[in-house]
Amino acid sequence: MEWAMSLLLNHPDVLKKAQAEIDNHVGQGRLFHESDLSKLPYLRCIINETLRMYPAAPLLVPHESSEDCVVGGFDIPHGTLLLVNMWAIHNDPKIWEEPRKFKPERFEGLEGRRDGFKLLPFGSGRRSCPVEGLAERMVGLALGSLIQCFEWEMVGDDLVDMSEGAGGLTLPKARVLKAKRKPRPTMVDLLSQL
Ligand code: HEM
Q1: Burial 136-158 (b: 16+ CB within 10 A, else e)
Q2: Which end of the chain has fewer CB atoms < 10 Å from its terminal CB, N or C?
Q3: Which residues of the chain have a pLDDT value below 50?
Q4: How many A from CA of 135 to the centre of ligand 1?
Q5: Which residue has a Cα nearest atom 40 of ligand 1?
Q6: ipTM over 0.95
Q7: For a substitution probing ligand 1, which of 63, 129, 143, 171 has the most ligand atoms within 8 Å of its CB?
Q8: Ligand 1 centroid vs 58 CA: distance in angstroms?
Q9: What is the pLDDT of residues 163-172, one digit of tens each?
Q10: Helical H segments across 11-104, by residue range
Q11: Span from the CA of 36 to the centroid of ligand 1 (angstroms)
């Protein structure tokens, strides 16, 4: 969420486009609902692009080979600790055009949250994230609601600092996001009824 909001603040054109999509499909007479998510492909592109650039678990979780195997030509004995560098795959210039550029449009037309073995923010196989569907809905609902209800602004003139901090298994921002927001004039009545 924090990475997504930071990216949106640094790319106001994308934020506007997402807001327009929500206004078109949800309108401003009611709050965003989870069931709206299937009608908001651009919002999904933003989430996919955020998880591509800043995967929540950049090395997935440690795995262990249960039997001898060969991976990419390397012999891996059973019992070996294996880490998958998902950050490197998600940001590999050999498979992504301008990987460090935030371009949600690159995912237009993609159904779901995987793109072969290029985009795997929830891992893959039997030990992939067990709550992938729930997590995607939670992020979509929360992010969509923030976009629908508020106008967002940076604090000061500088772009939001996108440096990555030192995490354990996860990828935190080096500096917490600070932003200004005010209710969109069209949403004030609805928000005041909450
Ligand atoms: C956007 C949010 C989330 C992302 C991107 C995410 C991503 C991941 C990833 C990449 C893995 C490792 C998969 C692998 O090694 O192949 C994982 C594992 C796991 N996640 Fe998530 N996750 C998210 C939210 C959650 C939440 C909210 C929960 C719990 C309520 C959760 C519970 C777990 C558990 C229990 C595992 C370990 C599964 C196993 O080892 O069998 N995740 N997640």
Answers
A1: beebbbebbebbbbbebebeeee
A2: C
A3: none
A4: 9
A5: 127
A6: yes
A7: 129
A8: 12
A9: 999 878 999 9
A10: 12-25, 41-53, 86-90
A11: 24
At 73-89, the pLDDT tens digits run: 999 999 999 999 999 99
Residue of 120, 124, 139, 137 lying closest to 55 (CA atoms): 120
Residue type, 54: Y
Residue 111 inside a domain? The answer is yes
Dig out the tokens for 66 from the structure.
């249960």
Range of the domain at 1: 1-56+87-192
In a domain, 35, yes or no: yes
How far does the centroid of ligand 1 lie from the alpha carbon of residue 108, in Å? Answer: 25
In this structure, is residue 65 part of a structural domain? no
Tell me what percent of the residues of the chain surpass a pLDDT of 70.
Answer: 100
Which residues make up each annotated binding site for heme?
A: 129
Distance CA 91, CA 54 (A): 9
- The total number of residues shown for the chain amounts to 194
Q: Which residue's alpha carbon is nearest to atom 33 within ligand 1?
A: 129
The CATH number linked to 121 is: 1.10.630.10
Look at the chain and report how many structural domains it folds into.
1
Taken in order 81, 127, 138, 49, the sign of the CA dihedral is positive
Per the listing, tokens 């992938």 go with 132
Contact 91, 99 (CB under 8 A): yes
The verdict on residue 19 lying in a domain is: yes
